[in-house]
Design brief:
about 80 residues, alpha+beta, two-stranded antiparallel sheet, 2 helices
Length: about 80
């Protein structure tokens, strides 16, 4: 009889742990940040590195990866 109670106790503890882990997992899924939408990439006219359009610096019709390349561009 003692073994049956012991197995029931272990089963109850395991069931509670699984239930708690599912709650934690669901809470983390809700807090996960949304994925950023795709963004156009622009090529630096000085070095050729691709930069996201929102981060690229523009001068006239050209895009640059940093202020040094923008200010030092001769072309």
């Amino acid at each position: 009889m003692g073994r049956v109670l012991l197995f029931l106790l272990f089963g109850a503890v395991a069931w509670l742990l699984v239930k708690k882990l599912k709650q934690i997992s669901a809470a983390q899924d809700e807090q996960a940040p949304a994925a950023k939408p795709a963004e156009a990439m622009k090529r630096c006219s000085q070095c050729g590195v691709y930069v996201a359009e929102s981060e690229a610096l523009q001068k006239d019709e050209r895009y640059f990866c940093c202020a040094d390349h923008r200010d030092g561009f001769k072309g």
